[in-house]
Amino acid sequence: MNYETQVAGDAPAGIFGEEAQPARRRLLVIGAIIAIILIGIAAWITMNGKSPEMAAAAQEAPVVTVIVPGQSVVPRTISGNGSLAARVEMPVGVVGEGGEVRQVLVQPGDWVSAGQVLAVIERSVQAEQIKSLAAQVEVNRADAKLAQAQLDRARALVQRGFISQADIDQRTATRDAANARVNVAVAQLAEQRARTGRLDIRAPAAGLVLTREVEPGQIVGSSSGVLFRMAKGGEMELLAQLSEADLATLRPGNSATITPVGGQAQFSGRVWQVSPVIDPQTRQGMARIAIAYDPAIRPGGFASATIVSGSATAPMLPESAVQTDAKGHFVYVINGRDEAERRDVEVGQVSDKGVAVTRGLNGNERIVASAGAFLRAGQKVRPQLKKAG
């Protein structure tokens, strides 16, 4: 009985001990594998300096194109506005005694040459006076011819003693007086013709007719005022009103761009005169900018001007890089952590080359070239550098 009990008690312990050993070994192997994996992850994190969450965020950051603009030479400009006018305006009126206007030969917008007739005044009375004076010239010439013939005959008879020297002197005086009367009559005829010619209203110089204030049948005289206004040579100008500080930087010869109100067309001009005085009330002065003729330039109209007064160095950015909100102009700068930072700037001239930044940048920053409207301050990005154009 003791033998059976011994066998019954030893058998289970032997069987269970042999089965438990492999299980423990398997658990140890699995634990070692897990530990190795954890150690590998920790090492990878240590080497890359980023957590898995950080890596995922980096993969989700938007890609933006950035530029480093540097410094560019840009023109220094001054903006102003004012009225358009003829550079040399010529008022044309009656220079003679006047009369009834028979014909008006030009219209506003016509080009005329120097001395061209603009309007004709009735001259029937003056024409008859010219005929009368011309006839008087012929009468006086006939008298002078007769006096010369009598003097010649007297000189032929004086040698024979029939006529004294006193008679010769008298006939010579008569001949000279007749010639003088001819000269007087000729001068009177020329004067009348000149007076009649002044009845024509003529252009004092070549140019463009701007206005017309006379019609056929109108009675005009020296008190009638201006009948036509002309622009000499068709040249125009802009009378730009500028501040005292801006005016001090201008010189005759500075180039300018003129934009009339109501249109998109631009015209080249050049400053030809800078006002020597400043209005004590407005603290402004005038720059006169000469412009070549163009039908779009109308005297009396309003226009703006951009005048180049020198040059300076400044960062030049594409227009897409500059954003605007209620606070003003700004750009996004990418810092060393690849985060977008707002930077307020002041802009200068806008041209085909881009926008000149006059304040806020030194040119060495990484600027978001486009898509800035979709970014926010502090946002992580993946910058891609592009050479500034």
TrEMBL record:
The YknX-like C-terminal permuted SH3-like domain sits at 317-382
Residue ranges spanning the membrane: these are 27-47
Q: Where is the CzcB-like barrel-sandwich hybrid domain?
A: 98-226
Which part of the chain is the CusB-like beta-barrel domain?
Answer: 240-309
InterPro entries named in the record:
Beta-barrel_RND_2, BSH_CzcB-like, RND_pump_MFP, YknX-like_C
**What's any one GO cellular component for it?**
efflux pump complex
Q: Which Pfam families match?
A: Beta-barrel_RND_2 (PF25954), BSH_CzcB (PF25973), YknX_C (PF25989)
Q: Molecular function (GO) terms listed?
A: efflux transmembrane transporter activity
Q: Which UniProt keywords apply?
A: Membrane, Transmembrane, Transmembrane helix
Question: What family, per the record?
Answer: Belongs to the membrane fusion protein (MFP) (TC 8.A.1) family.
Q: What is this protein called?
A: HlyD-family secretion protein
Question: Organism source for this protein?
Answer: Sphingobium herbicidovorans (strain ATCC 700291 / DSM 11019 / CCUG 56400 / KCTC 2939 / LMG 18315 / NBRC 16415 / MH)
